[in-house]
What does this fold into?
Amino acid sequence: MALQLHNTLTRRQEPFTPIDPGCVRMYVCGPTVYDWAHIGNARPVVVFDVLYRLLRRLYPAVKYVRNITDVDDKIIERARESGEDIAVLTARTAAAFHADMAALGALPPDVEPRATEHIPAMVAMIGRLIETGHAYTAEGHVLFSVPSMADYGRLSRRSRDELIAGARVEVAPYKRDPADFVLWKPSTPEMPGWDSPWGRGRPGWHIECSAMAEQHLGETFDLHGGGLDLIFPHHENELAQSRCAHGGTEFVRTWVHNGFLTVNGEKMSKSLGNFFTVHDLLDEFPGEAIRLTLLSAQYRQPLDFTRDAVRQAKAVLDRWYGALRAVPGAEEGEVPAEVMAALQDDLNTPRAVSLFHELAGAVNKAADDASRRAAASALLAAGRLMGLLEQEPEAWFRWAPAGAAALADAEIERLIADRQAARKARDFAEADRIRDALAAQGVVLEDGPGGTTWKRSG
Ligand code: AMP
Ligand code: ZN
It folds into this structure.
């Protein structure tokens, strides 16, 4: 079966056929770096990471571009409030984003363009839009003329009235049409700004992505992704700018959008204040458990976030890692065809996860060593394709929440050695005392043919 993806443009699931089968080109909108990422922001990162890993398996090369928006009014506002220098604020936040997403097992994209490093490309694109009658200047601003594009609104399928109401675009006297949106705006001397034919100013958010995508992926590319909330106005406007700047050529073949992560049914967002940062959650849970939680629903469905769901995901991973621990030195084998088929069916991760349970069960129930090893290799390969089971089982079981008064690994190893020595000396009372003392500290010992292993419980 070939890869099938739901395309927002057609509202249908379609077979995916790359423009250049030698290299798939994908753009995903990245973070605006002014604050910690919340777990809702992590959903697209993890979902598109699975798509990236799958594409890399299916095609010889993939060029994955995910930008960093480091010039934006929210950033300017935050820096003004805190007195922090903008460059320091964005560098700190981008570094935190990288660390958090790496902890969730997301691979870095191939190119991570920064908006502030692509201003000339934006200025050039705006210039072309003005020349071709798709944009106009007014009071130091440059605006995109929505009526200049006959099929504006095709992606979000909104009527003209809905477009105007939904855009909540600033009502500004210099706009020729209420739906017109900003490409360039003037900066005051304290604000970041760049010289341009329209005076010192800064770009609007939408043109940033159009220009960065053009520079790194060309005029037409295969896939463009982001959360559902980006369809309108952000992606509608990117599409309008890019097509109009490129003489009407197709911009993107397949648009992919993830559903919302919710809390009690409401979208998790900074403005509602109902968010958990990835940074804080990583103190409480291993990154892989958070990742599995995010992949437990198909990406287009809403996913209600609870700590209990992460706890359950951790328990599931404990079972899978437990199965792998029984097969030391297991190596990654072929990804089972059913797992490939599930992922190729519009990234059906819940189905893939249910197959993992079967694979782990096959490891546990295997009648002989060869079949146990084969099942473990399949489980490992399937896991790695989804960015899961990437640790050594021993390391997984040693994980402890931040700040827990946990015994250090070395201390545990020393106590286990003392217990071995006591057992050897047939001092079973002492051996049991050490085992109980460790249990009281949340460390569980398991004696097996290969010696004693341990794990932190809870
Ligand atoms: P923002 O920082 O709001 O531009 O969001 C960055 C990315 O996270 C975008 O792709 C958004 O669509 C996505 N996003 C924001 N909130 C959520 C949420 N609650 N659930 C899923 N995706 C979200
Ligand atoms: Zn974008």
Summary: The chain has a mean pLDDT of 95. Residues 29, 209, 234, 238 surround zinc ion (ligand 2) (CB under 6 Å). The first helix runs from residue 39 to 58. The two ends are 41 Å apart (CA to CA).
